[in-house]
Amino acid sequence: MSTKRIRIFKNEILNEFSSNSSYTGISTKYIISLVSNGAVQYHLGKRELTLFPQSFVFLNEGTHYASQINSKETINRFSVLLDPGFVCDYEYSVANKSHTLLDCPAYKDSKPVFLEAIYPLQGEIATVLRQLKNNMESGQTSELVMGEYLNHCLESYYRLYRTEVTNRGEALNFLNKSTRTEILKRLSIAKDFINSNYNKNISLNDIALASCLSVNHLLRTFKQAYQMSPHQFLTQVRLRQAKYYLKHTDYQVNEIVDIIGFECQSSFTRLFRNSFQVTPKQYR
């Protein structure tokens, strides 16, 4: 196991290479973690998450969790650990303009609580995390430079949170705010279950059971929040992972079809072309 660590204003950035490691404990900082290859298992109470490339996991400060890497290949995990004071200062600085971002008012001495989940690694936050990783690997340790990137990283996460959580909750057709919050948590568990098991033969019953929702309730509320069905979301995740394998591995297309859980190469090619306007071979 090899780990490089730098500290910036009480924040930490970790770049870990390991094929066999485990950790159990309490997070003392807010954690953003992603993997460049392979997979990492996370356990949050009764929830079991599997983090693959093209996504990142977010954990709150004070969360009891366990993580495990057990692989034949060396896995590269990159993590940003944000100090609670750094997050509180940022939230206080934007509270007057973004006081409705979270479900409670922001005060300088309070610690915001976010929805712990697997988020898509795309757009602005993907760019910022890639720049942080590249700077670290190139030996950049300037507090001014890295501090600016960390601030940008947190800002990007807040924007993503507004899109993926706050706006989704507001789209649910429930008058009671606490009901909306609870349903959104269960839908997030459903999404995490799909993200963690996208390459397996999972059913609607499996997803509903994991999220403690009936199948009909799952279908109705998932469509309200995400403007797509669970099956459409599963297909989206599989296609996103296919792009990763096409770009970063030498697997043949038929092998990738098996890896991501598709049963038919022709239907995969058709869906890929309809989604991205190129065939898998042209994309590669």
Task: Kindly describe this structure.
Helices cover 49% and strands 24% of the residues. With 284 residues, it is α+β, with helices and mostly antiparallel strands. The protein has two domains: 2-171, Jelly Rolls (Sandwich), CATH 2.60.120; 177-283, Arc Repressor Mutant, subunit A (Orthogonal Bundle). Helix 4 crosses helix 7 (230-248). The mean pLDDT is 91.
Question: In brief, what are we looking at here?
Answer:
By secondary structure, the chain is of the alpha+beta class. It contains 10 helices and 8 strands.
How are the SSEs placed, and which strands pair?
Elements: E1 2-8, E2 11-26, E3 30-35, E4 40-44, E5 47-51, E6 55-59, E7 64-82, H1 84-94, E8 117-120, H2 123-137, H3 143-171, H4 177-197, H5 204-211, H6 215-226, H7 230-248, H8 253-259, H9 265-276, H10 280-283
Antiparallel strand pairs: 1-2, 2-7, 3-6, 3-7, 4-5, 4-7, 6-8
Domain HTH araC/xylS-type: 188-284
Organism: Pedobacter albus
Protein name: AraC family transcriptional regulator
Give the topology string: H per helix, E per strand.
EEEEEEEHEHHHHHHHHH
pLDDT averaged over residues:
91
* CATH architecture label name of the largest domain: Sandwich
**Structural class designation:** alpha+beta
Counting H and I runs of at least 4 residues, what is the number of helices? 10
**Helical amount:** 40-55%
The CATH class of the largest domain:
Mainly Beta
Q: What is the CA-atom radius of gyration, in angstroms?
A: 19 Å
